[in-house]
Each structure stands twice: as structure tokens, then as C-alpha cells.
Amino acid sequence: MAWFKRQEKGIITPTEQKKETPDGLWYKCPECGTVADMGEHRRLLYTCGKCNYHDRIDSAEYFEVLFDDNRFTELDTNLSSADPLHFVDTKAYPQRIAATQRQTGLKDAVRTAHGLMNGQDLVVACMDFRFIGGSMGSVVGEKIARAIDYARQHRIPFLMISKSGGARMMEAGYSLMQMAKTSAKLALLSEAGVPYISLLTDPTTGGVTASYAMLGDFNISEPGALIGFAGPRVIKETIGKDLPKGFQSAEFVLEHGFLDFIVDRKQLKQQLTDLLHMLRPAVVEAPAVPR
Ligand SMILES: [Zn+2]
């Protein structure tokens, strides 16, 4: 029976004739393996319908999640990195920047914007992990600092969405200075009585955790996010002890008092709206800020 036995040998289907599912139609959850179509995945705001795994998303998606009708004004769109140290690793730094900009369509690892969230003004700074691991260099620091100033001058609550491997090594000391700069700007925002909410998403590590990400009036996180300063291997080797289970997960960090609450992305917009409503009297009653 020819149906069951291949009689001719050497039949090969060329790759271009193989019928494969086109990319981008299906999403497979890396946690539980459930397959969902992309439309459904998008409708669930890029979380898994079965195990609630929160997929990593970029600033474009967060802006869409938060801003009414996806309408917002982006701030400081044209800042781009210089090469103060003439840094070269496998590539010269300016080339790496140019290549990443082409690949991602982004200028650097953070975008800042002003828009309405359920009718309330909000300034958001959101990091993009795709841009050199969401690393914090002088452009990231400067854009965040300017967004904080903007929020303070207009008395609009500020939301920072962090997603970063930490400081950008190609700018070394200049990157580290961004920690002090953003922290100082946040202190001014706090003095002015304008609320600051910090949302930590997967992953938030290094100099970002050690500065603005942990300085919110509320520090909140998405479920399952990795939050830490140094990586687990470095810590294990330093203290010479095994680390507890779930170490550096958002849930562990919450239990140890470093987070105020964990929020499901599907409830993020509403919960932020409610939180800012509660904080509103503080914004209205605080004294005017000298410009
Ligand atoms: Zn899943």
C-alpha cells in the first residue's frame, strides 16, 4: 500500500514549499506552554489566560494600556546619546547606538509622555528593554529628569515604569551620575507634593533599582517580575550561602516589605486611577511651586 509506505526514496520538500504557520499569529506562554492566538493575547494585555504569566512589553504597549484612546504627547523625543568615553567593546558605542536605533525605531531606552488616564492628567516615563537591555545612560537619566520637572511644573502625577538591566557600562561614570540626578529631581517633586508612583516590571535590576525605581510614594510591581540589585549568582558567591526559593521575585520582595502591592496588568489602569484619586487632595492643597 503506497499510502503507508514511501515507495520512492529521496523525496524532499524544499523549505519554501513547506506550509508553516506564519509568525505573529500565535503566542506560546513560556511558563505553562499554553498557545493562544495573538488577538486574544493582545486582548489580555499580553498576559497568559491560563497561568497569568506577564509577557514583557515595551513603552508603546504600556502607553496603549494606560492612555485614553492611546493619545499622548511624547516629551523630549530627540535626545540621543553621545560617546563621552570613546567606548569600544565588540562594536564602537556610536555604531551600537545607531544599529539599535535602526533595529528598534527608538532613540534610547526610555520614552516619556503626557496624556490622560481615565480623564486624569498623567506623566509617564517608560523604559524599553529592547534598547541595550533597558540600560540607563545619560539620555535615560536626562529624559526622566526632564519628565519629572515637567510633572512638577504642571503639578501632574508622575509614573515611572522601570524595566532595566541597570546602568549602561558604555557610559560608565556618566551612567552612575544619573542615579543621583534622578533622585534629586524626585526629591524636588516630593517637596512640591506631587505624587510619584514607581511600577517595577520584569526585570528591574542594578542602578535603576538602587535609584528612582525604589523611590516612589508607592512602589508597585507586576506579578512574577524579577527585582533585585545584583544577580543571584553574584550574591550567592559573595555571601557563600544558598538563596531562598523565589528570591528576587516581586512576591518575595513584597513579602519583605520593599513593595506596596503587586498589580495585575489587566487591572493596572483602574488601580492607578483609584490610587491617584485618593492622593488628589494632596496635589490640590500643596503650595504652588516656584518655577
Ligand atoms: Zn501560561
TrEMBL record:
Lineage of the species this protein comes from: Bacteria, Pseudomonadati, Bacteroidota, Cytophagia, Cytophagales
Known pathway: Lipid metabolism; malonyl-CoA biosynthesis; malonyl-CoA from acetyl-CoA: step 1/1
GO biological process, one term: malonyl-CoA biosynthetic process
Cofactor needs: Zn(2+)
A Pfam family it matches: Carboxyl_trans
Top-level EC class as recorded in UniProt: transferase
Source organism superkingdom: Bacteria
PANTHER family: ACETYL-COENZYME A CARBOXYLASE CARBOXYL TRANSFERASE SUBUNIT BETA, CHLOROPLASTIC (PTHR42995)
GO cellular component: acetyl-CoA carboxylase complex
Protein name: Acetyl-coenzyme A carboxylase carboxyl transferase subunit beta
Coiled coil (UniProt feature): none
Stretches annotated zinc finger (C4-type): 29-51
